[in-house]
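Hi V.,

Quick status before I head out on leave. The structure for the redesign project is tokenized and pasted below; the design run finished overnight.
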């Protein structure tokens, strides 16, 4: 800030320049070029203009491009800061110079510099943007006591994620969290969302994205259907459900999983048999539970039914999903204090936002009990040699699910020291 009395920058107690207040009438570092008078007039040289006369203002995007180039003195860095192509920055600058009829920059093959007029103009434009940012922050601060608004993909709408979000709310006394699981495409400006969690590749033009976690995917079906699946080839004999989702390479999730586990030849074979396509992961889960079918699902979506024993992963072989869950924050908005706190907690506890990942039974059980089993962290484990159901119990006696075997097996107790779910009793 520039003091009207001394013309010098004033500083706060920390030695940093103080924030500009609405009573300051001198635009910093632009004295002699433009000045705000006491009656809200803008003085440029010897001419005075009403400061609320916006009819002659250049396009805002052109001004933003000019300010970015003036700050970074580099076209590529300015383009990155604005999240647009360098060619767009160049076009904005041309439009601005054409609009005001003054050359603002000089360009060479390897550099760009402000002309004298450009320096004077930049000295006025930059604090004008600072004033806009300060005014916006002032309005946002009025809403600091309001609830935090979080937008999540519907796949996270399960008891596990909700419980973790509730636990975070308890760690922030006085803060209320509103979570929307609507499938409607996100618009930060329209929806007034503080931040969002989305599943994808992490490229979102209007948001800064940070990876929270990557889930697992595998074929999943009911225990009854699983009796028909002893090898991967058996998947070709059963109705397969699929979603319209594709990988970055354009492959289906069936192809993605099969290629990772069995190679491209089998992946092409299984992908060639098109089954019923459903555009909702929730629909797929419900369809699996009522029909004789199998589908590639992510673990976080299927986990409630895996834990209850309604679904199993007959072949195990959980692999990383093609995409991840990302935390998104709007680029054009100042985050609230509570929003920053919740974001930090989410990043710190991201590993808790997903259910326990599937693990395999220890070798002494797989040789004595099953040929290949999948113990889904308190859900079901499945082998291919008998038809005997085995209960998985918590230490307190609560049932955790079933271990489905396909050959006669002996009674064994498994109680490893590091197993949080207790023992498997057969």
């Amino acid at each position: 800030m520039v003091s009207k009395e001394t013309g010098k920058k004033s500083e706060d107690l920390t030695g940093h320049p103080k924030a500009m207040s609405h009573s300051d009438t001198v635009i910093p570092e632009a004295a002699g070029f433009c000045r705000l008078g006491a009656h809200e007039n803008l003085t440029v040289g010897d001419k005075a203009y009403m400061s609320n006369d916006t009819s002659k203002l250049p396009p805002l995007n052109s001004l933003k491009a000019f300010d970015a180039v003036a700050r970074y003195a580099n076209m590529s860095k300015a383009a990155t800061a604005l999240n647009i192509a360098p060619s767009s920055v160049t076009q904005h600058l041309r439009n601005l110079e054409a609009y005001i009829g003054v050359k603002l920059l000089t360009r060479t093959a390897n550099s760009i510099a402000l002309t004298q007029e450009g320096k004077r103009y930049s000295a006025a434009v930059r604090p004008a943007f600072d004033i806009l940012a300060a005014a916006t922050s002032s309005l946002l601060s009025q809403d600091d006591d309001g609830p935090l608004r979080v937008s999540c993909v519907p796949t996270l709408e399960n008891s596990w994620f909700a419980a973790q979000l509730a636990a975070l709310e308890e760690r922030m006394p006085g803060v209320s969290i509103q979570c929307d699981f609507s499938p409607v495409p996100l618009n930060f400006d329209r929806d007034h969302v503080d931040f969002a969690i989305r599943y994808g590749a992490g490229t979102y033009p209007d948001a800064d994205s940070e990876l929270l976690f990557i889930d697992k995917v595998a074929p999943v079906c009911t225990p009854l259907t699983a009796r028909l699946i002893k090898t991967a080839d058996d998947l070709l004999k059963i109705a397969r459900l699929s979603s319209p989702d594709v990988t970055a390479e354009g492959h289906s999730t069936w192809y993605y999983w099969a290629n990772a586990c069995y190679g491209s030849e089998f992946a092409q074979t299984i992908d060639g048999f098109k089954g019923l396509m459903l555009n909702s992961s929730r629909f797929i889960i419900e369809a699996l539970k009522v029909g004789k079918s199998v589908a590639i699902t992510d673990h976080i979506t299927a986990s409630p039914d895996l834990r209850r024993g309604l679904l199993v992963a007959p072949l195990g072989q959980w692999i990383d999903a093609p995409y991840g869950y990302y935390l998104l924050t709007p680029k054009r908005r100042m985050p609230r204090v509570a929003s920053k706190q919740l974001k930090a907690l989410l990043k710190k506890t991201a590993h808790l936002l997903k259910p326990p990942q599937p693990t395999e039974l220890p070798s002494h059980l797989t040789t004595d009990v099953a040929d290949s089993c999948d113990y889904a962290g308190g859900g079901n484990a499945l082998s291919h040699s008998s038809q005997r159901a085995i209960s998985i119990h918590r230490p307190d006696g609560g049932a955790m699910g079933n271990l489905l075997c396909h050959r006669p097996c002996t009674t064994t107790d498994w109680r490893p020291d590091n197993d949080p779910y207790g023992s498997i009793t057969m």
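Above is the designed sequence. The longest strand covers residues 207-213.

G. will cover questions while I'm gone.

Best,
W.
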